[in-house]
Amino acid sequence: MMTDAAAQAIRAGRTALGVEFGSTRIKACLIDLDDPSRVYATGSHAWENRLQDRNWTYALDDVWSGLQAAYAALVDEVRGTYGVVPETFGAIGVSAMMHGYLAFDAEGELLTPFRTWRNTSTERAAAVLSELFGTNIPLRWSIAHLYQAVLNEEDHVADIRFLNTLAGYVHWKLTGRAVLGIGDASGMFPIDAATRGYDAGMLQKFDRLVSDRAPGLDVSALLPEVLVAGRPAGELSAEGARLLDPSGALRPGIPFCPPEGDAGTGMVATNSVAPRTGNVSAGTSIFAMVVLERPLREAHDELDLVMTPAGDPVAMVHCNNGASELAAWVGLFEQFATIAGGGLDADEVFEVLFREALDGDPDAGGLLAYNHLSGEPIAGLPEGRPLFVRTPDSRFTLANFMRAQLYGVFGTLALGMRVLEAEGVALDRMYAHGGVFRTAGVAQRFLAGALGAPVAVADTASEGGAWGIAVLAAFAVDTADSDLDVFLTERVFAHAGFDSLEPDAEDVPGFAAYLSRYRAGLSIERAAIAAKL
Questions:
Q1: Model's pTM, two decimal places?
Q2: Is the domain of 345 the same as that of 375?
């Protein structure tokens, strides 16, 4: 009976589709419109960024082939499970990695290869803008990329007619509307909390700043329109329907919610959009979002000021490097298991190694692991140098090695969170999501020790941002609730289970000792970069 009811809902379009472009996977998620906690089907496609001419990028052709593959996988699952092929949805939402630089000319052609959030070549521009605006402008923000292009006297600047993020670009191609959710927009240019639009005074300051080098450049005309969660954001066009579903089964006219960044969808996926709540999202990058009760006392290089999808102020600690180096080491052990005839698959290897880490010393036995595959501004590193370091008297065991690697995932994040702690920002609970938390009670426990605060993981955590943007799509067509926090609490998470862990009494001082060594050891990373090793 449940399958029959689901098939009927899918056939009638009583569903919401969410698509998210993560750093390593493009995911699609189909949920029930009336009960957004119910997931009907998912689909995914693996992709990777590439280092091209010293620039981290994705090819736009890969955006569309990957989107089509993820959607086709979802349709295949729907067909196989429910015996129907979706022809329409109640709403669609698009999410993607925030920040970066996509610059287009008047014909909508990309002027320079996509520069992702991972690039750290904007140090000069970010420093000038931070001083000019009186607030931290991170290296990965779109406005820093634009100003760096102006400083570099790049030829394409004169031809720019609009800028966007990856989510905004895909949304524009599917609907024809150049709009952006306020959370994603706040990673392009600073937002005025009162007007919930781009800060007018800062727009004027930027135009004056570039008037000599780029005369006539009007930054406000280049940026997409800002929309808060719940606002209509266009409909699927006929061209967009063919882009998403080349088979021709999907019909146009489906409403869209505002496109959002992965930070915003992570907040939705963990029900952390209200003040005194926060979340940690761990993937290729790792970041914490803490919803503020009051403005911070001063600007901090370690903290970005962004917005929830509903337009409330958030302090963000964003680290370019998350779990990729950890996954590389686990992959090495997986190779060993295969060669040794162990017959363990990747998930089983992760499980075994994560469980082993629980037996490690609280301070990881004096071992150090740095996960910096790319530059890390919070740690003061312009380039990536992943390293594993030990001294002759370190307690070099597998348990300590794995605990050091897991601690390393949270190392740079903890540096930024210590700044928030000094600001007196209070948290009732921190929520976590991402693949690293799939092994129950391991990464979650270590994160609690790193933050000195309870960490909760929801039943829906593994669905991630694709589910989060599907929920925002459902919110956009819902007529009963106008408040996102109420919608999430009463409609989405009313019966959700949360597994919460308090900090372990030994882990807190143990991680503090690890972090002290971690700070000191950053000089090793800087020496490796200086030596061009």
A1: 0.85
A2: yes
